[in-house]
Design a protein that fits this description.
11 strands, five-stranded mixed beta sheet, Jelly Rolls
């Protein structure tokens, strides 16, 4: 097939510019761990299959000269046919990609978003992606486990409540004070925040805050805070010299055992085993 330079190269399922370190084919998806050693500017291209990428190291992505920095432990959904370019810095990049097979999506009757969607740690897309990555790396390829995590990701994408995967809401659905509450959670997630403090800042009653937060985010403020803390811990686990006890203290956990309990609940494995998967 001739390349259409106005659209960029079309990459079929399983085709990437970066090196494929390991791969697993299932009836539902193509799972690939990608690694780029050193700098590279990837030309504008599009993918045949819709796919989710879990970012495991920094890199830039965009199109027409508009590049956005994607931090580690961000999940990105791209619909099939989306055109983008990629710039990888001197440190290279490590990515985990889940390409969704057309036939499986048709069988499910799943209608995916038509635009790129991001989850920067507080939404419902990243965590099943990390659990899937853990199982993939540890070769725990139980079909039910893999399929359940992929279905959880699809459920996050096809949610019909108007909320994006990263918890961003439309202005019509969120009250004016809601953005301030989320901003404070992101800025002060290491602190011992109380509902009363958040409610005072928002100028509402704590019960009203809890009700509205649950309605919009489908989780409590405490659950939201835990996701932010575990994502911060994931970033530090990339450094093998970082003691787990120090990571726990810096990310707002009571101690290392508290970190391990919450981490296992969200990522499906212990911090130590997850660190081993990242460095493998």
């Amino acid at each position: 097939m001739a390349e259409d330079n106005s659209r960029g190269k079309l990459l079929r399922g399983g085709e990437f510019y970066s090196r494929v370190e390991s791969r697993l084919n299932t009836d539902e998806a193509l799972l690939s761990e990608l690694r780029q050693l050193g700098s590279r500017s990837v030309p504008r291209h599009e993918h045949e299959l819709a796919y989710i990428t879990v970012i495991l190291s920094d890199y830039l992505e965009g199109d027409h000269g508009k590049l956005a920095e994607l931090r580690p432990f961000t999940a990105v959904f791209n619909p099939s046919g989306v055109r983008h370019a990629t710039v990888i810095g001197p440190a290279g990049a490590k990515l985990f990609t889940i390409e969704l097979r057309h036939r499986h999506l048709q069988e499910l009757g799943a209608r995916l978003p038509e635009q790129t969607t991001f989850d920067r740690g507080a939404g419902a897309l990243l965590w099943p992606g990390l659990r899937l990555y853990s199982a993939f790396k540890m070769q725990a390829a139980d079909p039910l486990l893999l399929e359940s995590q992929m279905l959880e990701m699809l459920a996050a994408l096809v949610s019909s409540d108007g909320a994006a995967a990263d918890g961003e809401t439309t202005q019509n659905s969120a009250p004016p004070w809601f953005g301030r509450v989320k901003e404070r959670l992101h800025e002060e997630f290491r602190e011992n925040l109380r509902m009363r403090d958040l409610a005072d800042d928002a100028g509402v009653h704590p019960v009203h805050l809890a009700r509205v937060f649950r309605r919009i985010e489908k989780q409590t403020p405490g659950d939201y805070l835990q996701r932010l803390r575990v994502r911060a811990a994931c970033c530090r686990l990339n450094n093998r010299e970082y003691p787990l006890a120090l990571i726990a203290a810096e990310c707002g956990f009571a101690d290392q055992s508290h970190l391990t309990r919450v981490f296992r609940k969200l990522a499906g494995t212990s911090p130590a085993r997850f660190r081993g998967a990242l460095s493998a």
